[in-house]
Amino acid sequence: MADRGNSMKTELIAEIEAAWAALHSYLAQLSEAQMTTVHDHQGWTVKDHLTHMAAWEESVVVFLQGRPRYEGLGVDESLYSSASFDDINDVIKQHYQALTLAQATAQLQAAHRRLMALLQPLTDADLSQSLRHFLPSSPVDDRRQAINIIRDNTSAHFSEHLVWIKALVSPRE
User: How far apart are alpha carbons 136 and 171 in whole angstroms?
Assistant: First the structure.
C-alpha cells in the first residue's frame, strides 16, 4: 500500500468509494419490484441486503464512537457474543423486515454518511489500532486492526453483496 506514497486512510477511502459507487450504479438499474419481491432460496430480497449492509456499517460507526458493535447491529449482547453470523444476520433481517425500500435505502445512506464522517479525522496510526483500542470493554475479543474491520464492513462487504444481488436479480448473468 505505502509504496505509492498514499496513506492507508487514503487508500481505504478510495476502496470504499469505488465499491460504494459500483453498488449504487447497479442498484440504480433495478426496479422497486426487483428490489422487494425477488427472493433467494433463503428468502432474502435486495432490500434485505441493503438493511443488512446498513446494520453492519452502523456497527462500525458505534465502535468508532466507543460503543459496543452489537448496538449498531440492533441485537443484544448475548447474541452478539455467542451466536453465529448467520444467527445475527437472521435477527437483523427480521428486525428491519417491515421497512419500505425507501426507508431501507435511507438507512444505508445514513449509516454510510456517519461512517465516512467518522473516518475523516482518523490517522493511519488510528486505523492500525485494534478494536480494543476503541472499545476496551468489548464482549468479543476482536484483535483485528480498525482498518480491517472498516474494510470488512464497507468496501469488501459492498462488493460481496453486489455479487449476491446480481445473482438474485439476474441469475443468468
Answer: 44
pLDDT in tens, 17-67: 999 999 999 999 999 999 999 999 999 999 999 999 999 999 999 989 989
Domain assignment of residue 55, given as a range? 47-169
Least confident of 68-82, 101-115, 139-153: 139-153
Domain count, the chain: 1
Per-residue cell: 141: 475479543
- Is residue 25 assigned to a domain? no
CA distances from 102 to 36, 41, 86, 137, 142 (A): 11, 24, 25, 35, 34
CA distance 26 to 16: 16
Give how far the C-alpha of residue 172 lies from the chain's centroid of Cα atoms, to the nearest Å.
Answer: 26
